[in-house]
Amino acid sequence: MRLTLLRCASMCIVLPVQPDGPKIRRQRELRGYGLRGFAKAARISHAYLSRIERGERRPQPEVMARIASVLNCRIADIQRDATESNDERQDR
Q1: Given this model, what pLDDT does residue 81 score?
Q2: What DSSP string runs through 14-81?
Q3: For the chain, is the Cβ count within 10 Å smaller at the N or the C terminus?
Q4: Cα dihedral across residues 7, 27, 70, 72: positive or negative
Q5: Beta-ladder partners of 8
Q6: C-alpha–C-alpha distance, residues 65 and 88, integer Å
Q7: Quick check: 21 and 89 in contact, CB under 8 A?
Q8: Per-residue pLDDT reduced to its tens digit, 15-27
Q9: What pLDDT score does 92 carry?
Q10: Given pLDDT bands bounded at 50, 70 and 90, which one contains residue 80?
Q11: Is 10 left (phi over 0), alpha (psi -120 to 50) or beta?
């Protein structure tokens, strides 16, 4: 399980990093990026990005930060709630 560290004043909170793959794909497409171009901008392979978007991989916090940076959003904006499914088939 991947974890992310959030610092607040004098305490630290560790939360799992759970990307919302379909949301990442929608945001990428809305910004006009193809899979390969976006992956290059985020400095990851296009195959890895595809797996993240399909919910097959949970990236390290550093990768999530790069994806969020290219999307010009916060990591929290591309994470899913712990109770949400990351399977697009259930959205149909």
Answers
A1: 75
A2: EEE--B-HHHHHHHHHHTT--HHHHHHHHTS-HHHHHHHHTTS----HHHHHHHHHHHTS-GGGGB--
A3: C
A4: negative
A5: 11
A6: 23
A7: no
A8: 667 899 999 999 9
A9: 45
A10: confident
A11: alpha
